[in-house]
Amino acid sequence: MAAQGGGALSRKAGALSGAAPAPGDKSISHRALIFGALACGASRITGLLEGDDVLRTAAAMRALGAEVERAGGVWQVDGAHWRTPDQALYFANSGTGARLVMGAVAGAGIGAAFAGDASLCGRPMGRVLEPLGMMGVVAKSHGGRLPVEILAGEDLSAVQCVLAKPSAQVKSAILLAALGANGVTQIHEPVLCRDHTERMLAAFGVKLGIKDDGEAGRFLSLAGGQALTPTNVSVPGDPSSAAFLAAAALITPGSEITITNVLVNPLRAGFYQTVREMGGDVAFENERTESGEPVADIRVRHSVLHGIETPAARAPSMIDEYPILAIIAAYAHGETMMRGLEELRVKESDRIASVETGLAACGVDVASGEDWLRVRGQGQAPKGGARVKTNHDHRIAMSFLTMGLASAEPVEIDDASMIATSFPEFFQLISRLGGEIIARQ
Ligand code: S3P
Q1: How many angstroms does the Cα of residue 430 sit away from the middle of ligand 1?
Q2: Residue ranges per domain, the chain?
Q3: What φ, ψ does residue 188 adopt, rounded to 5°?
């Protein structure tokens, strides 16, 4: 049953088994729509995530002048030269959509206004507007937050910059703006973060220099004035969404499941490495490459887990997976210490606070600091039995519903509606695998 609004409750229902496909990758879905809309001509996208965040980006692409149609499960995007939209582009809860499109609007040489929901209006946009400002973009904002307006008509110049935070959204916004800048933009990434924009720009015919320099990180260079050539994109399954299914199998005795067609790009796969280090029986099978990205089927069995320390350097490759990792840690023997989490404070909610409050309510020994979270598991199912506040955060909602599939008492969440932003089929897939989640009004 899909949750339309209201809360939800999960409870123990025995082992999980069978196979389920992960929903399309959210990061790649946004990029496929944006790049398709920038490329003059028709691009076809299969496997697109039809979650609310991505549908907002599709609507923004239409407002900017592209034709975006869905027919028979395939999305066709007819790109065009972008025009200034009549109304503000509304991104609801989606930081990725808003930040990437800011860069693309700047690169297209047009103006546009950007708006979002209460959560998005609280998130920092200055991290994108500052480098765009260095390129000559003139923007108005509400103290570095939405609503934002990018003004048309400035000539952009290339920048040479160091990515202070390993943020793929910031990097992507700069690269998209660089497409319309005079000169060669150079970005130094001391710590690597997801590289879907680089891979997909290449697929759309853009020449991008990538030089790896060991411990110094990666150097990117992109010459402005390049046009995108339409192409077809096959979107692989989202490893961040698959992590909830994997976690459900890891913590529920007797389980064995396979999640098919999952993106296993090393810059996204930190969660899977971590749960293996915790003793998780997780195997990548049938590894292959699709649309320039590595993909595998992931087989997961219930496992006896032990706590570990996760290094700060790994954070960018599993930044969205810490809430569900904290749930897994609550089932493990001993202490799991997660470091380097400062970015979790500015996600869809303050995820360190949301996780800590929820776990404590479920009887778990948990503590946190500005950039760390520590969970002490007892090597057995935690108590559960609480109603957890999700703070309108889809990953908090799915994390605690996953916890309740194996905890001693059911776990309830106050609001399941945000799950539709990234994983609309979550309820159906859990139920297909044998888990029990009940929607509540
Ligand atoms: C994303 C990058 C990450 C991630 C987000 C998606 C992307 O954000 O948390 O869910 O698609 O580029 P940051 O760039 O803020 O780290």
Answers
A1: 25
A2: 7-23+236-440, 26-234
A3: -105, 125
Q: Do domains 7-23+236-440 and 26-234 have the same CATH topology?
A: yes
Which tokens go with 237?
Answer: 């399954």
| Strand (E) or helix (H) holding 189 | strand 184-189
* Cis before 236 (ω within 30): no
The CATH number of 26-234 is: 3.65.10.10
| Cα–Cα dist 314/273, whole Å | 10
Q: Residue 316 C-alpha to ligand 1 middle, in angstroms?
A: 9
Encode pLDDT of 216-236 as tens digits: 999 999 999 999 999 999 999
What is the C-alpha separation between 334 and 332, in angstroms, rounded? 6
DSSP string, 310-344: E-GGGGGGGTTTHHHHHHHHHHSEEEEEEE--GGG
Question: What ligand 1 atom has the least distance to the C-alpha of 197?
Answer: 12
- What does DSSP assign to residue 419? G
Domain 7-23+236-440 has CATH 3.90.190.20: no
Give the pLDDT confidence of 71-130 residue by residue, as tens digits.
999 999 999 999 999 999 999 999 999 999 999 999 999 999 999 999 999 999 999 999
Give nearest CA residue, ligand 1 atom 15. Answer: 167
